[in-house]
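quick one, 237 residues, struct below
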Amino acid sequence: MVKKFEVSSAHNKIAGLMIIPPGRKKHPCVILSHGLVSSKESSKYALVSEVFAEAGIATCRFDYHGCGESGGDITETTLTIRLDNLDVITEYIINHPSIDPTNIGILGSSFGGTACVLKAAKDKRIKCISPWATPYRLDKDGDGTISGIPFKETIFTDFQKYDILFEARKVSDALVIHGEMDEVVPCEEGKTIYKNMKKPKKCVIIKNGDHVLSDPIHRDRAIKLGLNWFQGYFLKG
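---
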């Protein structure tokens, strides 16, 4: 079952999709936290939802501030705003009648992976996570933009307020995935985040993988690894 929803945050209206498998009354759920300029319609995340649903795991895809169908100006977005969005989505999921609130995970990629790590550091209701292609630094491109978008300076000053590696030390039960040839977020950033996390944890580097895992073989492998990771934790519950 695919059901649209809308919730309000302090900064914007958030549009989302719940993908709930048939069967049991309450399902484990993985929140999908997309990248800086992506959306809930990402082909990668749509495939994650499909594969996870077949395994009996619900997913929540949503659009962050300024993306997709959600409100807000993307040029004004910050990590703080996105964390607020993720907080609101988490509360929605925790209280959803079809979701088991004791079995909640987050899969986040790129900027959404950073939000995923910070959320897990402060919210122990998050049972496990899988950050993909995740940065702990934020740099402008040569023309002063990020992915061609002229973000306000606040995205950079706000990002600097967070010590991502310090927060990573509070996080365990994480599967870090990174493409070896990531052209946007160097692979070393993912490895460094992993090194700072607590055990249990696991890191998988996708050989020759790029930032978005555009090769179907790389993408399928990452999704399978993620599914196995979440299943292991949810089955324990």
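Strands lie at 2-8, 13-19, 27-33, 58-62, 99-109, 126-132, 174-179, 201-206.
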